[in-house]
Amino acid sequence: MLETYFDKPFDPGRRLQHQIQERLIEAILAGIWPLHEPLPATRSLAEAINVSRNTVSLVYERLAEDGYLTPVNRRGYFINERTIREQLNIRQDAKLKEGLPSEATPFDLQGRLKYSYSGQRSINKPADWRSYDFPFIYGQILPDKISVARWRDCVRLAGTAQHAPSWISDLVDDDDPMLVDQIIRRILPQRGFRADPSSILLTVGAQNGIYLTGRLFCHEGMRVDVEDPGYVDARNIFESLGASLTGHRVDANGMRVSDDLEGASLVYVTPGHQSPTSVTMSMERRLALIAASEKHDFVILEDNYEHELNFVGAQRPALKCFDRSGRVVHIGSLSKPLFPGLRAGFIAASPEIIRELRALRRLMYRHPPAQEQRALALFLAEGHYDAHIRRQRKVLSQKWKTVFRSLERHLPMCDVTQTTGGSAIWLELPDNVDARELQAKAAEQSILIEPGDVHYLNGKAPGNCIRLGFGAVGPEQIAEGFERLGQLVRQLDRLNKRSA
């Protein structure tokens, strides 16, 4: 019976030892092996499943350490009866539900909800984006093998006796002081300002920082001003908290700053790379926005999620650099330029604001995973983050140049917004080409693009804008992908002109 659990071939992409252990645990919990008989000898099982004897021996030892097996001198390994008994008790308890009434009273979820989060308009990104030949999707990257290896080393180092005491205990509502220190010394100076530990809070990504700040400052009926087009999830956060939104148009210099900001309680901006157009806010507008915040007494929520990925022209200091009154809440991401799936970020604000945010965060999840914080601190301290950013800038700069050359050659009929870096562009198609229709046609040719209408406030969206991300596309794919996309745009342009 035991051999049947090994009929399925092993996955060559996973460690053999782990797969054998998983299958043995499954067999043990299924009760297929007599408790009074030892498991097959290591040599016998190894020959039966065609692996080395040492591998089976290591698996047996691990299972004994975890309480599934009991070693008996000169007899072998026996299944631990207590483990099986606990499992049987769980199954027996599960049978008690048979005594409940045959029909349950229906639960009216919608009647209980004050706000439906699933009803929000959001950016939909296909889970199978890797299956496309040309995935021009924003927010995804090609793996940097060097950084992956360095991260693996730092995770391993964080788990050693030297560093484990920093994360095995509950930090309550505190953060890893080593990571906070690294952010202060290595990250903030590049953004043009400094801070002390009382002004820093770690978050689970930049978006978590937006939610925490929104939760702290927003209330029913409060006015929040946003960029239009702007970041969809930030807009959804503010609306879900009861805020009323006022949009401000975006041009080549970022969000327009005027006296229309009077009456706002909070203004959300993405000055480094405006989301979704990727333009960078000019210095004149940055200073004007700071002056407006003091004049009209509003809080600025600065989402600087990829400051490090500017590679055209000089770096511009963050809005926080000019903050004289403590009205700027600066949000940064440590994972966006590194590994988007890592989910690590920070908030820099006045100590008074951080104190309130820390108390709010404690109610939600106390603190981000402490082991991950220590691993990231080591990654920064050993210079791997800076080296990664240098490689990313070089790779993205080459792609950026290829993108604009390819646009000029294959999509000259489209208007593109000039950027100073990043990993995406904002493109305006000919007036009679619908972005959603183009998206469907492009998908048929394994090209993934993102229509831009979802980014506009109140549904007042042009139907001919798209965002093209190039972080997950190889340099050699960009020209071919844009050539195919250009052919589709021309076809749709001609068809729609004939039918008009």
Automatic annotation (TrEMBL):
Q: Which Pfam families match?
A: Aminotran_1_2 (PF00155), GntR (PF00392)
Q: PROSITE patterns from the xrefs?
A: HTH_GNTR
Q: Gene3D superfamilies, alphabetically?
A: Type I PLP-dependent aspartate aminotransferase-like (Major domain), Winged helix-like DNA-binding domain superfamily/Winged helix DNA-binding domain
Superkingdom of source:
Bacteria
Q: Key word GTP-binding present in the record?
A: no
- UniProt feature coiled coil, ranges: none
Residue span(s) of domain HTH gntR-type: 14-82
MF annotations from Gene Ontology: transaminase activity
List keywords of the entry alphabetically: Aminotransferase, DNA-binding, Pyridoxal phosphate, Transcription, Transcription regulation, Transferase
Provide the family line. In the C-terminal section; belongs to the class-I pyridoxal-phosphate-dependent aminotransferase family.
This one is known as PLP-dependent aminotransferase family protein
Organism expressing this protein natively: Roseibium polysiphoniae
Taxonomy of origin reads: Bacteria, Pseudomonadati, Pseudomonadota, Alphaproteobacteria, Hyphomicrobiales
